[in-house]
Amino acid sequence: MRSLINILDLSVDEINELVATAEDIIENPAKYAEVCHGKKLATLFFEPSTRTRLSFEAAMIELGGSVIGFSEASSSSAAKGESVADTAKVISCYADIIAMRHPKEGAPYVASLNASVPVINAGDGGHNHPTQTLADLLTIKRETGRFDSLTVGLCGDLKFGRTVHSLIEAMSRYANVKFVLISPEELKLPSYVKRDVLKKNNIPYVQTTSLEDAMPELDILYMTRVQRERFFNEEDYLRLKDSYILDTKKLENAKDSLVVMHPLPRVNEISVSVDDDPRACYFKQVLYGKYMRMALIMKLLKEAGTI
Ligand code: CP
Predict the structure, then answer these.
(1) Ligand 1 centroid vs 55 CA: distance in angstroms?
(2) What is the mean pLDDT of the chain?
(3) Considering only 144-148, 229-233, 293-297, which range has the smallest mean pLDDT?
(4) Could you report the per-residue pLDDT of 50-65, keeping only the tens digit for each?
(5) For 106-205, where are the alpha helices, taking DSSP H only?
(6) What lines the ligand 1 site, CB under 6 Å?
(7) For position 150, what pLDDT does the model report?
(8) Helix (H, G, I), strand (E, B) or coil at 80
(9) Cα(165)–Cα(129) distance, rounded to whole angstroms?
C-alpha cells in the first residue's frame, strides 16, 4: 500500500506530475468534482492545525468525497492509551485514506505499517511535513517558473522546523540550487540533515546569523516560526522567539523577483506591513496546498485501486 511519509517517497517525475495535476485542477475544477464520490478521508490530528487539516478536508470535499476524523488527541481513544498502530487498523475499517499529524517523529510511519489504506504524513514532530513541501513546490514553480538555479534562504527555526527539513530534501534534487541557512546558533539545521542531504549530494550551503547580509542574493526567502511547542525551556523560547522579524525595510535590499514564503502560522516573524508587498507569497502558498493535496489524494487512491 503506497503511503506518503517523506517527500523523497515521491520521485522527481511524480512531483512534476502532481504539480501538473494541481495546475489542471486550478484551471478546470469541475473536471475533478466527482472523482472521489463515495470515498472517505480520515484526518487524525494529534496536534493542532489550521491549514493542513482544513486544506485536506477541503481537498476531499472538492473531489466529491467526504471526511471523518478528530482534531485533537484528547477527543480520541489515544487519551485512553490506544496505540498509533491500533488506531491505524481501526480507521482503515472506516476510511479509504488517512492524513495523520502527530507530535512524535515516526508516528505516521508506524500508522502506515499497520493501516490497510494509504497514510499521509501531515507533520510528525520536528521531523517532516511532506505535503507542506508539495504546497511549497507549487508556489516556487508558479512564482519563479522553475525548480533549478535558485538561491533559497531558510530563516528562523531550522532545528525543529519540519517544513524546512522536507523542503531541503525536495530542492536538493534539482540542479544548481544553493541554500543560505539563516538562524540563531541554537536553532541551526540538524547535523543529520546537513550530512545526509546537503553534504551527501554536494549541495552548496552557507550558515549565517544575519538575514540582512543574506537578503540581496536570495531568490526565495522561506521564513519560519520559532515553535514554542518544541522547546523544553520557556526561557530559551522567549530569548529566541523574535530573532528574525522581516519588515519592509529589510526587503529594500532584496531582489524585485524575490519570493517570500512562510508555511504559517506566523507569530512576529513577518510584519503585517509586508503582506502588501507583491513579493509576499505566503497566502498563495496556503491555497496551493489545497490543490496539491487534491492531486495527492487522487494519486494515492488511484494507486490503491480505490478510484
Ligand atoms: N503549515 C502548517 O502546517 O500549518 P498548520 O499547523 O496550521 O497545519
Answers:
(1) 10
(2) 96
(3) 229-233
(4) 999 999 999 999 999 9
(5) 107-114, 130-144, 162-171, 191-193
(6) 49-52, 123, 132, 263-265
(7) 98
(8) helix
(9) 8
